[in-house]
Every structure is written in structure tokens, then in C-alpha cells.
Amino acid sequence: MAEAAKHGATPFEGDGKRVLLVLGSPKPGGFCHAVADAYAHGARAKGHVVHTLKLGEMNFDPVLRGGYELGQTLEPDVLEAQRQIHWAQHIAFVYPVWWGGLPALLQGFFDRVLQPGFAFRYRSMESREFEPLLGGRSADLLVSHDQTHWHYRLRQGAPAHRQMTRCILAPCGIALHHLEEFSPVRGSGEEQRQGWLRRAEQLGTQV
Q1: What is the C-alpha separation between 192 and 187, in angstroms, rounded?
Q2: Residues 58 and 1: beta-carbon distance below 8 Å
Q3: Which CATH number do you get for residue 66?
Q4: Under DSSP, is residue 54 helix (H, G, I), strand (E, B) or coil?
Q5: Which of 32, 42, 136, 146 would suit a FRET pair with 185, their CA atoms being 20 to 30 Å apart?
Q6: 8-12, 41-45, 124-128, 130-134: least confidently modelled range
Q7: Tens digit of pLDDT for each residue in 77-95?
Q8: What backbone phi and psi angles, to 5 degrees, belong to 54?
């Protein structure tokens, strides 16, 4: 559930740019949580208002069981996520890459939340082209994985990056601002990780 909802705060209060931080790791802790905290700290230091969605704490079915044609009841946390996305001017997604792609929970979040009529609509019954409905927003992607940059991008083709930028953000009208990789996490030392967290905080100041 969104922090604003849990703490009773209205999602329209405060000054500065409205930033939504989506933590896409289902794990209750770990490096992605530290990255998200550092990013939020940097953004708040610049006077921006930051709300957070922690997908691991949300209560929704991540499986789009009947496709968009049959419809599926939107749980309160899905409706709250849509409200937060509508509120936001900038969205930061923090997530790990697993098996080369997005964690299943994050994929399910997109399947359920980015509904036709909310994030996009088809231009016509015959057309396969999308009309984006979330234009005017920007996004940062802060991504951790265990491959070297060379191996993930050149050998594997960076499928998660391509899906996020070309198949999710662009069709919805959200402009990519930064894509930052923290890798390889496995085997990294404390000094390296602290450097990555400083970089995440710096990105938060550049919203």
C-alpha cells in the first residue's frame, strides 16, 4: 500500500515536484531498498514530495487472469497505485533483474495497473497503435543485477531495459530520464555499494 495512504496523508499535499517511487522488489529488504531510500533522500533534500509504493507490501492479484477484454475487479491497492501515478510528475522505478527480465511481481503490477483507459487506449478497433494517456511524466530506472554491463547488454540484449523503455514507458507516454545500472551486485564490496548509493542519492537530486 502507498505510504501516503498508510499514514493518512493526502497525495496532493506539499510543494516541489511530485515524485512517485515504485519499489519493484518483492523482498522485504536488500540492496534495492537501500537504493530506494537513497534516491528518496536526495529528492526530498531538493524539496520534492516523494510517495512510495512498495509492491511487496501491496495486496493485489498480479495475474491478469482474463486479459483486458474480460475485465478484472481492481483491488483497493491497484486503484491507489493508479491514483498515485496520476498524481506524480516523475516516477522512479527501483527493481532487480531476475532471469534477464522483470520480477514477476513488477510485471504483474504493470499488467494490472496500466489498464486501457488509464495508461493508454487503442486508436481504433482496427488499429494496433496505442494512444498514450500518461504523457507529461518522466521516469528514472534504477536497476540492479549480477551481470557485467557488457554481458547483460551485448550478450543478453538487455531485455528488461528494452521492455521498460520501449514496451511500457513509451506506449504510456512516459519519457525516460535516467537508466542507471548497479551491477554486478553479487560479489561487490561495501565501498562499491556505498558508491552506488551515493549515485542513487545524486539521481534523486536531479529529478
Answers
A1: 10
A2: yes
A3: 3.40.50.360
A4: strand
A5: 42
A6: 8-12
A7: 999 999 999 999 999 999 9
A8: -100, 105
The answer for residues whose C-beta is within 8 angstroms of residue 119's C-beta and 6 or more apart is: 85, 113, 132, 133, 134, 171, 172
Establish how many alpha carbons lie within 13 A of residue 77's alpha carbon, considering only the half-sphere containing its beta carbon: 18
Q: Are 131 and 121 in contact (CB under 8 A)?
A: yes
Query: How many CA atoms does the CB half-sphere of 136 hold within 13 Å?
Result: 9
**Number of domains composing the chain:** 1
Instruction: Supply the range of the domain harboring residue 178.
Output: 19-205
Phi, psi of 133 (to 5 degrees): -115, 0
- Name which of 28, 23, 34, 29 is nearest 197 in CA terms: 34
By the 10 Å C-beta count (0-12 exposed, 13-18 middle, 19+ buried), 189 is classed as: exposed
The cell 502507498 sits on which residue?
2
CA distance 46 to 57: 27
Quick check: is 184 in a domain? yes
pLDDT of residue 178: 98
Whole-structure pTM value: 0.89
Query: Residue 3 domain-assigned?
Result: no
The Cβ of residue 154 has, within 10 Å, a number of other Cβ atoms equal to: 10
